[in-house]
Amino acid sequence: MSQTVVPVFNVLIRTHHITSRKKVAKLVKATDKYACYVLLRSGGSPGIIYCEGDEEGVKSWVSTVQKLRYKDYQLVSRPNTLVLEKMDAKERPERGHLHEVVAVKEFGARMESLGIWEWWRHAMGYTP
């Protein structure tokens, strides 16, 4: 019996800032509803959101974020198939959970542990 492998998709969003707890609560609900893993940098500028999951879940989740009308909303990396940079980062985080960090440095460290450090740096405009 063969198993179907469903590709993992990811997306990166940048905003001016993420401070509204009401909007974060809506993101938490959408994260659970669409079975995504979400990492959120909140509290100051810039606001950064990473999301991964199946294609439909990620696209629906992004639609939810767009409806929240964040200031300076930028879809810096459109939903696309996840490409790992490190072979030892195969284990993906648990879906249906939103995690918050307060520092860009901590966000970057999480991206590195997920095996997508260079992808994140490029999407953020830190590297050409």
UniProtKB/TrEMBL annotation:
InterPro entries: RWDD2A-B_C. CDD domains: RWDD2_C. This is Uncharacterized protein. It comes from Mytilinidion resinicola. The lineage of its organism: Eukaryota, Fungi, Dikarya, Ascomycota, Pezizomycotina.
